[in-house]
Automatic annotation (TrEMBL):
It is a multi-pass membrane protein. The chain crosses the membrane at residues 31-53, 80-102, 131-151, 163-182, 208-225. It comes from Flavobacterium psychroterrae. This is Aquaporin Z. Belongs to the MIP/aquaporin (TC 1.A.8) family. It comes from the Bacteria. Keywords: Cell membrane, Membrane, Transmembrane, Transmembrane helix, Transport. It is found in: Cell membrane. Pfam families: MIP (PF00230). PROSITE patterns: MIP (PS00221), PROKAR_LIPOPROTEIN (PS51257). The keyword Cell membrane applies.
């Protein structure tokens, strides 16, 4: 249960911090943090929770990460569903908290006909810059693929894992710097689902892509790392 609570709180913080920065601070007149600030906020949520509870649960905070670690032989199948449920519940709880805060200001309402409403993800007319379904799918697939490669490499027993939380947090920051204009950046099915539930409308019908693309990218990364990149115990680690 401690692992599941750690995943709940870690995913809550990721959604609350990342999506909250997009809702409250990104476009604030003259002092707004913009895309770069939101990207950094997402990275900081993962970095801080990796060190806070990563030693308890492994610090996944993302169904795609759990699935990718399973594909890479780093996570048992029997724990997948409980982790994913905890992550989704944490994300939805964070989105609900954000909704209460957001609607506490006069005039604030969710316009689910607008791209990026309530920090939701989308493609086509619901992409921040109008990117197609194909572009959105490819971006989410590729970015999640590399995110998992980074996670698998940074946490490998042959790596210097002391700084893996920093590496993974910066990787997520870079991912957001690339893709906020494309999809508003997901690479995390729980994060997409939570915002789409409160947004409703077309963003909710498009949430399938933000489950399918990240999961497929994570599966491929796990398979490739395990079969092509991971060193065996009998290999000489001094050889390249």
């Amino acid at each position: 249960m401690k692992k599941l609570f750690a995943e709940f709180f870690g995913t809550f913080w990721l959604v609350f911090g990342g999506c909250g920065s997009a809702l409250f601070a990104a476009g604030y007149p003259e002092l707004g943090i913009g895309f770069a600030g939101v990207a950094l906020a997402f990275g900081l949520t993962v970095l801080t929770m990796a060190y806070a509870v990563g030693h308890i649960s492994g610090g996944h905070f993302n169904p795609a990460v759990s699935i990718g670690l399973w594909a890479g032989g780093r996570f048992p199948a029997k724990e997948l569903l409980p982790y994913i449920i905890s992550q989704c519940v944490g994300a939805i709880a964070a989105a609900g908290t954000l909704f209460i805060i957001w609607t506490g200001k006069a005039g604030n309402a969710i316009n689910n006909m607008q791209a990026g409403a309530f920090a939701s993800n989308g493609y086509g007319a619901f992409s921040p810059d109008g990117y197609s379904l194909q572009s959105a799918f490819l971006a989410e697939f590729v970015l999640t693929f590399f995110f998992l490669l980074i996670i698998l490499g940074a946490t490998d027993k042959y790596a210097n894992t002391s700084f893996c939380g920093i590496v993974i947090g910066l990787a997520l920051t870079l991912i957001h710097l690339i893709s906020i204009p494309i999809t508003n950046t997901s690479v995390n099915p729980a994060r997409s689902l939570s915002q789409a539930i409160f947004t409703g409308g077309e963003p909710l019908t498009q949430v399938w892509l933000f489950w399918a693309a990240p999961i497929l990218g994570a599966l491929l990364a796990g398979f490739i790392y395990k079969t092509l990149l991971q060193k065996n115990d009998n290999e000489d680690t001094s050889n390249n």
